[in-house]
Write a sequence for this structure.
């Protein structure tokens, strides 16, 4: 074989390697009728991978109102199903939370914005084309976060909207196989009788018995202080404790939660649609160690926003890692934060999805025109990251509300978890009918 032939073969091998790498990223448009919060909220799982299929749920809008949709990718053929309808939602807050049980049946909750929750189960395993009769449970609920236990019991937290005389709450519901939905407890209660958004996020420990939960509370004295807190249950939600094992009487309140971050009310920004503390995504590694992802403002209360990961150390104090300087894909001077998500891979890799925006210019990460979606991966416990911008940067179109597939009990985490996000406007109000693009991205090239 001549040197020139050898050189040509070497070049071909290099090109094949580069091409296989270039083919790794895949982006697919699921819908062009997405509502203003089609892929929100990040605490609710919307992607399920199971036995060679990936099911993705979101919230469309049309002239009649709002509709929960699901599409399924068959990995073997690389083909997507049509968009199947699950049921209506009250407004753009009523998007789905999707999980799969040990037998492969899909379970979905959806609909409310301070209403009863609605629930359906797939008629056949690993098949989103047909669903059982809709069931309602609870009252005055919003923002479901659902996981499934080893015996296929469903565990769900949701915000309860209190009255003028009653503080708002996070309530815990369960549903045993073939049983009804049952309210088990009020697990968190706000300190004041007015608006609260707890942003509670649930995750299993590796024993599939320990529930880890993070939540944001507004302060009660004074009102606009913020607390990001943590609690866990080692007995399937019956009792709760701090990271050091000390008991938390239910319902937990600002003073009894394990505090991760506290923000002084003087740091509350004056900008519209801004928050000095936004969380929370929680993930748990193979050692049953919780990690919480959130964002704050700078120490002096100014923009840009800063993203953080917190995890308890050996003394049960929360060790915090700032992310802005570690994420190379973040444009200089931009803010980084939530909505976002975090999961761990089978070999301990940490996967993040975050929202980036020029919030110094636009004073918000909430659907502003400069919003973009960033993916990051760490193979050394968060010390260093590789990152990239998932969305195609476009100053005229927000790319935001990212949602990453989370381990909810029986879904099978692929090599790289998929990311769902919204390309389009938030709308002028909760009932705005929009035609946004709903996008799915995967670095592993599932399709």
């Amino acid at each position: 074989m001549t040197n020139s032939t050898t050189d040509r073969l070497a070049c071909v091998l290099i090109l094949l390697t580069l091409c296989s790498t270039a083919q790794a990223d895949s982006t697919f448009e699921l819908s062009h009728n997405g509502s203003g919060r089609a892929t929100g909220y990040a605490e609710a799982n919307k992607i399920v991978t199971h036995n060679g299929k990936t099911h993705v749920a979101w919230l469309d809008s049309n002239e009649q109102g709002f509709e929960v949709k699901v599409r399924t990718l068959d990995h073997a053929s690389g083909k997507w199903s049509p968009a199947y309808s699950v049921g209506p939602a009250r407004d753009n807050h009523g998007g789905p939370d999707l999980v799969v049980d040990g037998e492969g049946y899909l379970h979905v909750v959806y609909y409310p914005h301070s209403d009863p929750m609605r629930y359906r189960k797939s008629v056949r395993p690993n098949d989103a084309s047909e669903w059982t009769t809709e069931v309602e449970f609870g009252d005055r609920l919003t923002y479901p976060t659902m996981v499934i236990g080893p015996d296929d019991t469903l565990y769900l937290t949701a915000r309860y909207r209190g009255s003028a005389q009653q503080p708002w709450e996070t309530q815990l519901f369960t549903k045993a196989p073939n049983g009804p939905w049952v309210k088990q407890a009020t697990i968190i209660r706000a300190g004041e009788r007015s608006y609260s958004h707890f942003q509670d996020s649930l995750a299993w420990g590796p024993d599939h018995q320990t529930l880890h939960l993070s939540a944001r509370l507004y302060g009660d004295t004074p009102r606009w202080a913020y607390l990001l807190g943590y609690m866990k249950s080692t007995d399937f939600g019956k009792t709760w404790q701090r990271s050091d094992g000390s008991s938390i009487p239910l319902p937990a309140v600002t003073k009894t939660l394990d505090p991760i971050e506290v923000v002084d009310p003087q740091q509350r920004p004056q900008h519209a649609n801004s928050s000095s503390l936004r969380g929370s995504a929680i993930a748990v590694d193979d050692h049953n160690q919780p990690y919480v992802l959130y964002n704050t403002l700078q120490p002096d209360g100014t923009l840009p926003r800063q993203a953080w990961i917190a995890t308890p150390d050996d003394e049960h104090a929360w060790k915090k890692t700032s992310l802005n300087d570690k994420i190379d894909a973040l444009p200089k001077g931009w803010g980084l934060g939530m909505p976002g998500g975090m999961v761990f891979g089978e070999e301990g890799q940490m996967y993040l999805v975050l929202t980036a925006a020029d919030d110094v210019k636009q004073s918000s990460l909430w659907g502003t025109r400069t919003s973009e979606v960033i993916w990051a991966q760490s193979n050394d416990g968060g010390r260093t990251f590789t990152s990239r911008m998932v969305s195609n940067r476009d100053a005229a179109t927000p790319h935001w509300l990212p949602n990453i597939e989370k381990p909810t009990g029986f879904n099978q985490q692929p090599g790289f978890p998929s990311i769902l996000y919204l390309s389009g406007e938030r709308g002028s109000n909760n009932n705005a009918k929009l035609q946004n693009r709903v996008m799915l991205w995967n670095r592993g090239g599932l399709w």
In short: The chain has one domain: 39-442. The first strand starts at residue 26 and ends at 34. The domain at 39-442 is CATH 2.120.10.10 (Neuraminidase). Confidence is low (pLDDT under 50) at residues 9-23.
